[in-house]
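S1.2 Input.
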Amino acid sequence: MADFELIKSLARKTDTKIVLLVMDGLGGIPHPKTLRTELEDAQTDNLDRLARASQTGLSIPVAHGITPGSGPGHLALFGYDPIKYLIGRGILEALGLDMDVRDGDVAARGNFCTIGEDGTITDRRAGRISTDINRELAQRLNDIKLDNARPIVASGREHRLAIIFRPEDGGPQLSDALTDSDPQREGLAPLEVTSSEILGQNTADIVNSFLKVAMSVIADAHPANGLVLRGFATIPNLPQMSDVYALNPAAIAAYPMYRGLAKLVGMNVIQTGDTIDQQIETARENWNAHDFFFIHYKYTDSTGEDGDYDAKVAAIEQLDQALPALLDLDPDVLIVAGDHSTPSAMAAHSWHPVPVMIRSRHIAAGFSEGFTERECAKGMLGTMAATDIIPLALANAGKLDKFGA
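S1.3 Output.
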């Protein structure tokens, strides 16, 4: 992992520019119907050409055998030890939706879901309802009144939302030591929120009261007639990338969680569009203002989670077609990586190593013929910790002084 004190002592400002392009859920495993991965089936002339001019390898986001969430996976790509710096997803979602999160607030991430007649969840994503329907339901939830806390709800994309529980003046302090109400799979009923701490149990009671009222308020909104919460968290204090790495970093991400995480590590979050073409155009428009750009591409993950092999192949090809516009910016260092693998064969995040490549003027290339799991396994980077990617990027950009005499 990156030793922050060491890196900080060596980091220096330069005019060179780094781009970290994250293809969320990038990695895969051979699918039973093709015996190939999505990267192997996709037509990726541009990514393959870039791989032949790059150092390649496979990254481990957390540790061998550990399946990471998107938060830990991205923290690792930013050089932060995801085990040391634990961040609840709720705080990321709330910040990403530009909610006013204050000290003492407890934030959670939520899904509208479909509840069957037997009380179990039949669709954790409520058929990916439209964002317009989400907004209407979120407004209903914002009208809920509680004792001792104020719930504040913000709608996200499709089925997603964030909620802040804010303590009332003179009311009890709130705790984030809470279990999720989301069982994380279908066929089960939403769970009661609990805590092993006295303070936490008071907060759990508040959350359960909210959920009880919420379920009645949206009971007529099928397929979004249910609500589950997870990732309860308070706002943390993280080392800032500008301080540790001597960077002026920017984030170009459409989805709230990644915008929230970028804010926590000190990136300037720039408004952008939904497509990768729009995101690259945003980078071009802001090229002279920053020396580090994090660009997030979501659709390789969402298609994998849906178990849709062909759609994930298409998402990879869509990014490949947009890549020349990014290459035209000619960053001194370009990294293409993933925060974790999301094989469509599993329809879920997985523990499998993730392809990565780094292009700069100071690397030995030629070990890989394309950008696939098998080809990246041949690369000079080997199988590496994801936390080592940023130090390598800084070194390749000439942003680290020599260590020792």
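S1.4 Remarks. DSSP finds 14 helices and 13 strands in the chain.
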